[in-house]
Amino acid sequence: MSERAWHEQGLRDAALAGDARAWRLLVEQHQDAVRRYLAWRLGGCLSTLDDLAQESWLIAARSLRRFAPDRGAFQHWLFGIAANVCRNHLRSRRRSKQQPLPEHLEPSETPVQHEQAERVAQALAELPEHYERLLRAKYFEEASVECIAQTEGQTIKAIESMLTRARAAFRESYQRETS
Amino acid sequence: MNDELDDILKPREVPTASAEHQAQLLAGTMTQLKRTRRLRQVKMVALWVAVFLIGVSLGWLGLQREPKQLAIQPAPQATAPEAPPLLTAAQLELQAEKSDDPVQTAQLYRQAGDRFLEAQDMRSALRCYRIHLNEGGPDVRAVLASDSWLLMNLKTTNVTRR
Asked: Is the whole model's pTM more than 0.80, yes or no?
């Protein structure tokens, strides 16, 4: 087990045993990353960011026991939860026939920017998980292809090929949302 | 198109969470953690109680069920040898008179003599011992440790007379 896994395992166990400091440390360490990830998933639409972040953390607290440090980093586990929260949020918005704009937009957002952000968010939400993971590594985490290949346990050639397919899938989905 | 994607999918600048939001998030998640822990404890207690109750129920059901009837056979009673009826001296004498076997007749007269002696009836004891010595022949004339004093006396007198 790596040092990271030991550290996260210790914090997880302490938090589950009722240690408030351990949980506070986990939140403080990863709060900004979760917010940045949600903002990326939402295409930059920040009006629902706080609510979705809160919901993601509540789910994380409820299902903390399921987090297995030896299977991956706490941050990636949190990103998985945030991605589901995002997907559910967009699905429920889509289900309602009318999709009114939120009552308050962020000061930096125009209605056009907001609509584009929604399209990006919908397009990302429709991607298969492995494509989303590749695009996240490439664009959100700004990792090199070599680094992604090492993390995924694939060759550079394979990752490049998968990235091409992931981009194509995203583009298709995004264009469908636009039309 | 790649350039367009780079622009669309680039990481966004996000304002850090306000102190109020952060406090709210911590409070909410801490409550959630406590609730989850308590729920788990309650579940564990409920599980143990359920296991205990199932055990008690099974035990109770086991007690309610009628015990299997085992075919118990009486142990064969040891046949104690019937004690010979305690005959009186007169009865022994009578049996001796009826007996055809000389050895048995001699034995019965001797027993009758012993009984008469116990009952302090010297004359009858003397009579029975004499017949015993006459009927038994030389085999019974040897003095034995189990002989009564009267019988022993008769035997020695007989020997002396000889």
From this structure: no
